[in-house]
Specification:
Number of strands: 17
Number of helices: 3
Shape: elongated
Structural class: alpha+beta
Strand order of the largest sheet: 1-2-4
Largest sheet: 3 strands, antiparallel
Distance between the termini: 192 Å
Strand content: 15-25%
Order of helices and strands: HEEEEEEEEEEEEEEEEEHH
């Protein structure tokens, strides 16, 4: 009996090796142990269900799942029926002997749970999921910039201390911040510009020229002041009468006579002033 059992096990292993080619689901038990005259299955091949735990033929212990059924467990007595995509669902991946059908939802809808057993309306930006698989607009003071997400409250201040709020938030965006121009930015390091040799000489020459021009201007100003002062202190030259030699020309005679009369008048006036002074002195005495 033992010899027959080992012969059956050998044939079973050989058959399973032949059936193990790509694209073909292996049938029967994948791992078993010998208990007395029987083999007891521990793990079935993927896509197989358990028929009985122990028996003389390991291949007969497990059998493949039928059409439209699958099993993901290595040791299960029954296969599970494949899911059918219905209503708003669409087929994404066909069912196999080891995996269930993968369903999705039509455009504008999304899966309501992880296995996508039902579809719900997809909420866009500025909305959030509500009761009864519907959407509602974000309440005032909140926003949502993602697809089918909960609304979040606006920030009350800017993330950086040197920024100011320049725009209020709305249903699809948070508050808008901008740097404060009057406030210098933090952690801003201004590196001094290192002077180069070709930039120093023009500066030196310019300074020398400006200094020379300044000294020349000061010197000219002082000279002009001295000239103006000398002109003011210059004595006025008095005019003296010109006496010419008498001639027979009547015009010459008239000029001489006028000069003589003017001189007499000046003497008379001076003598009169002296007489008046003497009279005053006598009265005082």
């Amino acid at each position: 009996m033992s010899v027959i059992l080992w012969w059956v096990l050998g044939v079973s292993l050989l058959t399973q090796g032949c059936l193990g080619s790509p694209g073909v689901t292996e049938s029967g038990c994948s791992k078993w142990s010998i208990k007395g005259d029987n083999a007891c299955c521990e793990i079935c091949h993927p896509g197989n269900r358990v028929v009985k735990l122990c028996g003389p033929d390991p291949k007969a212990l497990c059998t493949p799942c039928g059409p439209n059924t699958y099993t993901a467990e290595p040791k299960q007595y029954s296969c599970t029926r494949c899911t059918q995509c219905e209503g708003a669902q669409v087929l994404v991946t066909e069912c196999t002997s080891t995996t269930d059908t993968v369903c999705g939802c039509k455009k504008g809808l999304r899966c309501g749970d992880k296995p996508c057993s039902f579809c719900i309306k997809e909420c866009g930006k500025g909305e959030e999921p509500a009761e009864k698989r519907s959407c509602r607009k974000c309440p005032d003071g909140t926003f949502n910039d993602q697809i089918h997400q909960k609304c979040k409250p606006w920030r009350t201040r800017c993330p950086h201390p040197d920024e100011l709020i320049v725009a209020k938030g709305n249903a699809v965006s948070d508050i808008e911040c901008s740097p404060n121009i009057s406030t210098p930015r933090i952690n801003t390091v201004i590196k001094p510009v290192e002077p180069h040799a070709h930039t120093i000489w023009p500066v030196v020459i310019t300074c020398v020229v400006l200094t020379c021009l300044g000294l020349i201007t000061i010197y000219i100003t002082k000279v002009m002041k001295i000239i103006k002062k000398s002109k003011k202190t210059k004595k006025t030259i008095t005019q003296t009468p010109i006496i010419r030699t008498p001639t027979d020309d009547p015009r010459t005679l008239i000029a001489v006579e006028c000069s003589f009369h003017e001189a007499q008048q000046e003497q008379g006036s001076s003598s009169e002033s002296l007489a008046s002074k003497d009279s005053k002195n006598q009265l005082i005495v």
